[in-house]
Specification:
With about 300 residues, the chain is α/β, with parallel strands linked by helices. The chain is built from seven helices and 17 strands.
Length: about 300
């Protein structure tokens, strides 16, 4: 099946894009997770979203969820690791799964912090961003999960079922616990920041200040991937995707909105940009139809 619009991200920008595309009768697929947005969910209080003030992030998230549910919009829980422009459509890759769409709207949020030394160099050569996608490649091998969120613990457990040895390296606060109750007992937790991911042709080591571990693969689990690694050829400005006023990127048919498109990082701004991206994606699709009729 080839969709009209694929939306990557289920925060305010992605949800707004989905709602506005659905209203205009386009065939859409929305990639994200059941929590919608970890950043939104953790917000203690929101006062600058028009019409909703003195409201927690959890409450605003529930309102967003009720809205998309009422429209029959489903969230597809596949982590998209690569998007390729194929000419007249886009191929979105999630492990062994591939999805096709005529247009793509990127609403993945922003990646905070610099990549670990060696992370981008060995991407695709032992470094990956989705353990559940690439797990079959690491059967009976040694792997490390560098987790920036608690969801990474689930991916570590999944990978641990087939790997010979699993290391978990938490990059977030874990309340002083040596290990999490959610991690399998035989997963080794390393409470030390990694300095470098090393290798030759492929990854073979993760180094820390005090020691090194030998591994066959490393998974870096973040809330969002770097846009330049997600979409080859995408023009970026620092951590952001370069867009025009209509949320167009430099790749025809590819749009970006929300935090990934630049500051300010605001929920209401993200929702507005999601609407703009969807309207212009619809316009792009309509123009393609007109060109086909002319032919």
């Amino acid at each position: 099946m080839r969709y009209d619009i694929a939306i990557v991200g289920s925060g305010p920008a992605g949800l707004s894009a989905a709602v506005n595309a659905k209203i205009r009768n386009k065939k859409i697929i929305l990639f994200g997770n059941e929590n919608l947005s970890n950043k939104l969910q953790k917000a203690p209080e929101i006062n600058n979203y028009l019409g909703f003030y003195e409201i927690s992030g959890e409450e605003l998230k529930d309102k967003f969820k009720n809205h998309v549910d009422s429209m029959g919009i489903e969230i597809t829980n596949h982590k998209i690791t690569n998007i390729y422009a194929m000419g007249d459509y886009f191929a979105l890759i999630s492990g062994e799964n591939m999805f096709e769409a005529i247009t793509v709207i990127l609403a993945t949020g922003i990646q905070y912090g610099k990549p670990i030394k060696g992370e981008e160099e060995y991407l695709g050569r032992g470094v990956g961003y989705c353990a559940t996608c690439d797990a079959p490649l690491y059967r009976d091998k040694r792997v490390a999960i560098i987790g920036y969120n608690k969801e990474a613990e689930e991916e570590a457990n999944f990978l641990n079922e087939i790997a010979s040895k699993t290391y978990f390296i938490p990059m977030y606060k874990r309340e002083g616990l040596m290990r999490s109750n959610h991690l399998d007992n035989n997963i080794e937790v390393i409470n030390e920041r990694p300095v470098e991911i090393k290798g030759e042709i492929l990854v073979n080591q993760v180094s820390f200040k005090t020691k090194e571990i030998d591994v066959d693969g490393v998974f870096v689990i973040k809330d969002s991937a770097s846009p330049k690694t997600l979409v080859p050829g995408l023009e970026v400005e620092g951590a952001h995707v370069k867009v025009d006023i209509n949320m167009n990127t430099n790749i025809r048919g590819c749009f970006a909105c929300g935090d990934i498109a630049g500051k300010p990082y605001s929920y209401i701004k993200a929702a507005g940009q999601g609407q703009i991206a969807a309207i212009n994606a619809v316009s792009y699709l309509d123009q393609l139809k007109i060109k086909e009729k002319v032919k």
